[in-house]
Design brief:
Strand order of the largest sheet: 2-1-3-4-5-6-7-8
Helix content: 25-40%
CATH class of the largest domain: Alpha Beta
Strand content: 15-25%
Number of helices: 10
Bound molecules: 2,5-anhydro-1,6-di-O-phosphono-D-mannitol, magnesium ion
Structural class: alpha+beta
Number of strands: 13
CATH topology of the largest domain: Fructose-1,6-Bisphosphatase, Chain A, domain 1
CATH superfamily of the largest domain: Fructose-1,6-Bisphosphatase, subunit A, domain 1
Shape: globular
Length: 345
Amino acid sequence: MTDQQHTSTNWTDDNLMSLQSHILAEERHHPSATGDFSWILSGISLATKTIASKVRRARIEDVIGEAAGGPFGESDGINVQGEQQLKLDIIANEVIKACLGSRANIASLVSEEDEEPTILRSRKEGGRYAVFFDPLDGSSNIDVSVGVGTIFGIVRLPTIPGVRGTDAILHEDAQMAAAGYVLYGSSTVMVLTTGNGVDMFVLDQSIGAFVLVKRKLRVPASRKIYSINEAYASRFSEGVGRYLDWAHANNYSSRYIGSMVSDVHRTLLKGGVFIYPQTHDRPEGKLRLLYEAMPMAMLMEQAGGCAVTGTGRILDVTPNALHQRVPVILGSSEEVAHVQRCIDV
Ligand code: AHM
Ligand code: MG
């Protein structure tokens, strides 16, 4: 092989690359890297592999259905949003907390299933990050075997004296450093960004590892697909109504699974726009800012797409509560622009 051939070859494209080796390789490009991400992501990898196996065995192990109090912990079966928890929601939450609790650099965990953050350690004790997660998004679809997922965001906490706990998590200087989701679908897929593009991994069950299948994923700039729960049309704003009229007149297709991870995954790979807007009865929308909207927004922007609330970028929203909700419009840049144009009229 000539020198020319040697330097132009991207060796890793042909080689088997696990999530772990990928993160270590990425960190080598940053001389100041401390190994923080590899440590946290190995915990997320372990947790999501465990959840994947539980999701696949849910019916066999009889963990489909609603949670009650008792054997599944302190919960009375209703979460902080007032929503009925399913047994698997609680199991997935416990698995993630068990896998991340001992990671020395995590200060706190924020979960959809817990009213308060789990504070693990202070900054003096090494806690520099918060991890936000929705342990099992779309779990109401589990009993019909539709794809569900775990969404996560890793947030670098501000170093301001006296700012700790929930105040640090909600502080405007808290920075989303990494985000991703794991889709438990016909295959188990992890989509991840650490701020340097978006990479996709598939869980190879035979070796028990997430394997890199696609690096630097780009969302197509346009595609005539919208994804929205159109049954709520009479409760949408005029702007969203105008967009739907425009989309109908322009031969768009509709695709809505009702499981955010699946809908966003399709949008990322095929293009289009995913919309969960505010409705008259839910003026803030349904999806939660910290552990649903923000991680998906970071992924979409890193893949070249857009993610907005209708009044600005999702990533520019300063949170005011752990379980705050926001309207979500995300996907291909041109498709998001069409929605925005109709809202702005
Ligand atoms: P969950 O976190 O309670 O599972 O709710 C979030 C889910 C999303 O996955 C999905 O996009 C949305 O709720 C569907 O809501 P709707 O049934 O109102 O269309
Ligand atoms: Mg959710």
